Amino acid sequence: MSFEEKDADLVENFSSLGFDLDDLLATQKLALDYVHIERRKSLKRESLTWRASL
Fold this sequence. Notes:
The chain is mainly alpha-helical.
């Protein structure tokens, strides 16, 4: 998962680690998706309860 990185930046950064993202994308071994989340002027804060399932 990456935040605020463009596709070209990801390809360049991962190539320094030995990964060819262009090839992985072309052979459908990897998919990149972009999700735009719009920030609202005011956010309602709510209390969250986290439960661990064992």
